[in-house]
Amino acid sequence: MGFILSPVDTVSTIDPEDFKKNYLKARRPIVIKGLTENWAAREKWTTDYLKKIAGHLEVPLYDNSKSDPSKPINSAAAHMLFGDYLDLIKSEPTELRIFFFNIFKHVPELLKDIELPKDLMSGFLESMPAMFFGGSNSVTFLHYDIDLPHLFHTHFGGRKHVILFENKWKRRLYCIPNATYALEDYDVLNPDTKRFPALDGVEGQQVFLEHGDTLFMPTGYWHWMKYLGGSFSLSLRAWDASILRKVESLYNLTTKGGIDSILKMILKAPYAKYRERLAIKWAEKALANNEPK
After folding, report:
1. In 3-state terms, what secondary structure has residue 257?
2. Please, are residues 116 and 105 in contact by the beta-carbon 8 Å criterion?
3. How many angstroms separate the CA atoms of 155 and 145, rounded?
4. What is the C-alpha separation between 256 and 258, in angstroms, rounded?
5. Coil, strand, or helix at residue 198?
6. Strands of the 139-143 sheet, one edge to the other
7. Per-residue pLDDT tens over the stretch 66-92
8. What is the pLDDT of residues 3-31, one digit of tens each?
9. pTM value?
10. Chain-wide mean pLDDT for the chain?
11. Cis ω on the peptide bond leading into residue 218 (within 30° of 0)?
12. Which strand (E) or helix (H) includes residue 247?
């Protein structure tokens, strides 16, 4: 059977009170297609425009390969001039992608082209807008963001397939211990439930984002993304109002970020194999106990 995926709620616009009650407080995702209607970026931001203003920058690139146990998570596979990379994703399929690129530090005038949706919620991290770029073969592995923000993820220039899971399913997703990502040995689009039986029946949601669409992803949501053509996205991050959530964020950053990276570099492959075995053990136990309940 595999995953049980339902569509993400999608609206053109939404009343702030409706959003706060039914999505922010309820921690449910939603796509708001008209959130960017008044943004200059909606029409202005093209690969040609971004190449013109920032093509000289060198950027790290990431691929779809399984992470190296001897390196910290999100280690770059290569480097390239931003302009050359934009030409690449326009001209041919590639799995190379740009991850968490704060282009605004280099070209701050781009901030004038967007508007933070402060009518929907407060707590935006105004110093941390980030952009993500990918070719038609690039995939973002299944994970949740380590600092546990709410995310407003707007897509530009093409389509992107997104699959989401609530954090309560993390054991069944074969979450790696001391980390915020899953075992990378199964295909999220077509999971082998004979090899990974805990995935069978896991409930999630999916959506195909189009140009200008904004996906609200609540704190802690697992997400997997595939670019269906050379395109890019902008993520705006905001803190949850809960003090407990902020404490959990700090814990993740210190334990699942710093300490885990050090252990990976010291212990390398044996540590990676140990964690993978433990992820499988935890997943099988969660399945046997019919979790989450």
Report:
1. helix
2. no
3. 18
4. 6
5. helix
6. 4-7, 203-209, 160-165, 222-227, 139-143
7. 776 555 566 788 999 999 999 999 999
8. 999 999 999 999 999 999 999 999 999 99
9. 0.94
10. 93
11. no
12. helix 243-251
| Residue carrying structure tokens 């380590």 | 146
Angle formed by the axes of helices 260-267 and 269-288, nearest 10°? 120
Which residues lie below 8 Å from residue 44, measured CB to CB, with a gap of 6+? 113
Comparing CA positions, the residue from 148, 167, 108 lying closest to residue 238 is 148
Helix/strand/coil for 293: coil
DSSP states along 9-46:
EEES---HHHHIIIIITTT--EEETTTTTT-THHHH--
Q: Which of 84, 181, 179 is nearest to 133 (CA)?
A: 84
Within 13 A of 197's CA, how many CA atoms are on the CB side? 9
d(CA 11, CA 23) in angstroms, rounded, equals 12
CATH numbers and ranges of domains, the chain: 4-288 (2.60.120.650)
105 Cβ partners below 8 Å, 6+ apart?
Answer: none
Residue 40 token pair: 């200059």
